Each structure stands twice: as structure tokens, then as C-alpha cells.
């Protein structure tokens, strides 16, 4: 790893699965990043070092269902801040707010507990990958409904050809991603 960038090192550990979940799709599988202890540490450290900066330090980390839970909870722990899950509809046991968003073939709804964040909280919103941006946009709207400020959206992988990162930036959400699969 010493002769390569962190971004390239992580990219080398992301598996591409052809034609999954549908023909023509190149699925970017992050599970190899999680399976190797050294690679997982490099991944988490890349985020933690960024968000230790007082100007970027969140009050809480919000993770999107489900891979955002894996990395988001570890990042929150390392930063010494709380973690809140944004889940698919019907998975949270307490009173929730919800946001429905469009998918390529239909729609989906995510929920957040009404007491997950406080008004004015600075929130880091995290997921594994940005494709069309629908899930992250829905998470941003949920957090804002509760009065929080989503200070940045973060993900391991950006697939800019699908338009999500451009859509999120156009909405005013700053983004930070580690690996870009543009044109690949």
C-alpha cells in the first residue's frame, strides 16, 4: 500500500460482479473491504481522519440502510459521537418520520425515529455507494425535517455516470467519496 494512494488501494479491494442483480449491471461489491482487517482499517481511517477536523466534525453520524450502518457506526464510535440508523419502512420500533423516493422500477420509503437528532445537529450522512442519489436525498430530507443540518454526505463509492452525485450536489449537499468508478 505504501506505493499507492488510499483511494487506489481501496479500489483494488472492491469486487465487480457482472450482470448482478440484472443483465448489464456491474455491481460494485464492498464486502472484500470489510473482510480483510487491514483494508477495513484503512477504509475507516480514511473517513475518521477527515471528520476529526473540527470544521468537519459532526454531532452525529446517520447511516443509510443497510451498508451505511456498517461503516457509519464504526466511524461514529471512532469519532466519539452518536449513530442513528435510517431504515427501510417498517423496521424501526418507535415513532418515525418517513420519506418516499423514486427508484428505477417503483418507489421506496425510509424512516427515522422522531428523536434521532436535535434541531441544529450537524449530521454526517453516510452510505456505501452513490448511484442515482435517491436514498441519500431521502435521508437528507428526513434529517432536515427534524431540524438537523446535513453537513456532508459521504460514501465509499461514487458512480457518477448514474447522476446521483451531481443531483445531490445540486441540492446543496457537499459530498465526499473515496473511490470513483466513472467510465468503468
From TrEMBL:
Recorded coiled-coil stretches: none
Keywords on record: Cytoplasm, Glycosyltransferase, Purine salvage, Transferase
Catalytic activity: AMP + diphosphate = 5-phospho-alpha-D-ribose 1-diphosphate + adenine
Main subcellular location: cytoplasm
Occurrences of domain Phosphoribosyltransferase (ranges): 38-160
GO cellular component: cytoplasm
Pathway entry: Purine metabolism; AMP biosynthesis via salvage pathway; AMP from adenine: step 1/1
Entry superkingdom: Bacteria
Any one Pfam family match given in the protein's UniProt record, by short name: Pribosyltran
Subcellular location: Cytoplasm
A GO BP annotation: purine ribonucleoside salvage
GO molecular function terms noted in the UniProt entry: adenine binding; adenine phosphoribosyltransferase activity; AMP binding
EC number(s) given by UniProt: 2.4.2.7
Similarity comment text for this entry: Belongs to the purine/pyrimidine phosphoribosyltransferase family.
Role played: Catalyzes a salvage reaction resulting in the formation of AMP, that is energically less costly than de novo synthesis.
Complex and partners: Homodimer.
Name of the protein in question: Adenine phosphoribosyltransferase
